Amino acid sequence: MTDTAPRQQKNKASSTQRYSQRVRQLKIILPVTAGLLLVVIFFLIQPNTANAPVKFESATLTNEGVVIQNPVFSDSSENGEPFDLSAASAREDLTNPGRVYLDKLRASMTSRDNILIELVAPKGDMLRTQKTLTLSETRLNGDRVPVSLLTSNGYRMDMHDLNVDFDKRSAQTDKEVTGEGPIGRFRADKMILQPDANQLSFIGDVRIRITPQNKGGTQ
C-alpha cells in the first residue's frame, strides 16, 4: 500500500507523455509533397520521357523472358528534385509482353528543402498497357519484409501491398497499414495517397498512439 502514490504519479506522467486515440480517419500532411512519390513511380512506366538513360549491369534472354540485372535510373523532376530508381532485376514476361516483374525495388527523391523520401518494395508487378503497378511484401527466412515508405524527417509506413493506377494518379492499399513518426504510432485498415492534396489518408479503424513533444524540457 505504501507504493500507491508513486504508482499514481508514474501513471500520470506516462499519460502525459502518450495516449491512445481511435478515430475514423487520419490525414497526414507530408512536408515532402506526396505527389513526389507518384512522380517517381510514373518514370517506371514511361522512362522514355526522361533525358537520362537507364543503366544496367546485364541483360539476358531466358525461357521466362528478358531479364535485366541491377537497372538504375537517375534524373530530376519537373521541379528540380533529384530522384533515383533501382531494382535488383526486372523481367518482362515473354508470354505476356508489357508485363514486367521487378525484384527489390527502391525509389528515392530529395525535396528542395532537403528531405529524403524513399519507397522500398520486395516485389513489383507492372502492366504497361493497363498502366498499373502492384508492389507486394514477401517473407525472408520466415520474417515479413513489407512495402515501406520512409522519410528523413521521421516517418515510416509499412504496407502489405501498394496498388498504383497511373491514369487515375492514385495509389492505395486496402490492407492494414502500420506506421510511426513525429505524431506517434498509428495503424489503419487502408491508406490512400492523394497527390493533389499533398497528403496520405488513413481510413477504417484508425488507431493512434500519440506522443506529444516535450516543449521547454519541463513537465
Total strand segments: 19
Instruction: Using the coordinates above, name the CATH class of the domain at 32-170.
Output: Mainly Beta
Unreliable stretches (pLDDT < 50, length at least 5) are 12-17, 31-36
The assigned CATH architecture of the domain at 32-170 is: Sandwich
Query: Rg from C-alpha positions?
Result: 21 Å
- Portion in helices: 10-25%
- How do the strands of the widest beta sheet line up side by side? 8-9-14-15-18-19-17-16-13-12
Distance N to C terminus: 26 Å
Q: Predict the CATH topology of the domain at 32-170.
A: lipopolysaccharide transport protein A fold
Q: Sheet with the most strands?
A: 10 strands, antiparallel, barrel
What's the CATH H-level superfamily name of the domain at 32-170? Lipopolysaccharide (LPS) transport protein A like domain
Q: How would you state the average pLDDT, rounded?
A: 76
User: What class, by secondary structure content?
Assistant: mainly beta
Which descriptor suits the 3D outline? globular
Strand content: over 45%
How are helices and strands ordered from N to C? HEHEEEEEEEEEEEEEEEEEE
